[in-house]
Specification:
Helix content is 19%, strand content 18%. It is α+β, with helices and mostly antiparallel strands. The protein has a three-stranded antiparallel β-sheet, with helices on one face.
């Protein structure tokens, strides 16, 4: 998933925004999330600041041997699922 970040915000604010979004919108429902922020730092802003978020398709539970796949997390744009 790619999310655009507000160019007028400071890098520390971007980090807080992405952490909050990753936790509240994704991780709170079970998957693990990894993320990275990309901003080229140039004055012409050819590439707007954005974050890439990668998530698992399995629910993570401490103490479980392995999680179960959640089919609707693996849906394509036409609604087909795969696991």
């Amino acid at each position: 998933m790619v999310v655009t970040l507000p160019a007028e915000a400071a890098p520390d604010e971007w980090i807080a925004m992405v952490r909050r979004y990753a936790h509240d919108s994704i991780a709170a429902h079970g998957p693990v999330v990894a993320w990275a922020i990309h901003a080229d730092g140039s004055s012409d802003e050819t590439t707007p600041p954005h974050a890439h978020l990668l998530m698992t398709t399995r629910v993570w539970r401490h103490g479980a041997r392995r999680g179960q796949t959640v089919p609707n997390w693996c849906a394509t744009s036409d609604g087909a699922t795969f696991a």
